[in-house]
């Protein structure tokens, strides 16, 4: 560990030694500076190259001011991340990041420099002018790395832009907790290992880091996890962190995340927004998916008798209380599972997820935009506050979200896929065309397989694409999509006249409308007819080699 002397402005290295009887440390008492990185920060190499070079960087003023404040409070040494870590050494950087939570925890005091704050309190950039005014929150609170820098140190002092002291963490606990979502128990130094995984990830959900991998690495200390750093792995770092947590802790709240579901397309304008969806894995692809996990209980309560979950090649092996979701038309495909974590303020209510079976005991997440709430009810329909044992079979539980009862709950050992790619929805397969009908163009072309005549969308959006057909020397557009229906989706098709010489198929697709509920009731959305060219089209779901597809049938009517 390198430290900067607050008056000599020299950097020295200190080591922790193992004497056999335990760790011995020659690291002196030190302060620490937490800040947001700006342009021209002073690196270790800048400092070692000489003060003339270091003082030319804008970050030098911040270092000098931090030293002055630490010396004023009686500290001879200070740790500042910009100049006390050799970031050119991947080994040293990895060791520093894995040790950083402990370094902040061991500091005598942590000074938080808020470079954009000018008010008299340490939360907003300026003072409130009125009761309902909400100035911008200081940027320091939005960064991923500063989460542990706020939680780990026992003593935290906040300094505004002009380096004036505006109070301690203890002075502003309520305000800090309100704008960060961090529980006061954690801010006051509570045992983080007792807190649920979902609650801790909730603190990170709205924060940002410059590098995507750091969204995982900045949480290592929060979960007391050590793992190697692999910059370049992208979002896989967050998946890897969760795998390490699963191996270390028995806490099913790690599965209590909610995300964007492809069905969300159906509730908007229906326009194609790109293949940006990721989900359906056993574990979350991003901390943002825990944003709505605030209602999951703060503390986890492990059950020692339950088998520990295991990260395996087939997925996450876990024991869950499950039942078949009989609301679905395909028997044995969808299941409901109880997670052993309290959700909400009513006693006896546990969180739950929906799973889709892909093989005998292999599952993936389904309906990820919803966390279910399961409970046991009495004859009067009221929730029994004594709850139920999620490690024992249950005759009947109610989903409080839909007020639906589900029977025959059994404890199962299953594998939930770790893949963060959703299963493809059924493609649209155009059957061999009749004479005088041929395909002229397709939008989006990247979804079209010319070898099989299949339009394969990545997600079940309200509008999937359009096929430009030439029929009897005229052109007509066939627009395809999905409608929300019960627990799943239903394909629809619609024909539009257009002139290929004047109109682009893209423009026809953009102007097309998703059939309304009233239209679907009056006429099945799975068929349409064009009087102009005498073309009838229908779409129906069918299993092709045991794979669900949407079969498009085109028929000329004389």
Topology summary:
Blueprint: E1 2-5, E2 11-13, E3 16-18, E4 23-25, E5 31-34, H1 44-48, H2 51-54, H3 59-72, E6 77-80, H4 81-84, H5 90-106, E7 109-113, H6 146-151, E8 156-159, E9 165-168, H7 173-180, H8 184-187, H9 197-204, H10 214-217, H11 236-248, E10 310-312, E11 315-324, E12 334-342, E13 350-359, E14 362-366, E15 372-375, E16 394-399, E17 404-416, E18 428-430, E19 437-443, E20 448-449, E21 454-455, E22 465-471, E23 474-485, E24 488-497, H12 505-511, H13 517-522, E25 527-530, E26 535-544, E27 547-556
Parallel strand pairs: 5-6, 5-7, 7-8, 14-17, 18-27
Antiparallel strand pairs: 1-2, 1-6, 3-4, 8-9, 10-11, 11-12, 11-17, 12-13, 13-14, 13-15, 15-16, 16-17, 18-21, 19-22, 20-21, 22-23, 23-24, 25-26, 26-27
Highlighted features:
558 residues, alpha+beta, Mutm (Fpg) Protein, Chain: A, domain 2, globular, HET-domain-containing protein, DUF8212, HET
Mean pLDDT across the residues is 87
Share of helical residues: 10-25%
Low-confidence stretches: 262-279
Rounded to an integer in angstroms, the radius of gyration calculated over CA atoms is: 29 Å
The proportion of strand residues reads 25-35%
Q: Name the shape in a single word.
A: globular
Number of domains: 3
- Count all strands and give the number: 27
- Describe the largest sheet: 8 strands, mixed
| SSE class | alpha+beta
**Spatial gap, N to C terminus:** 85 Å
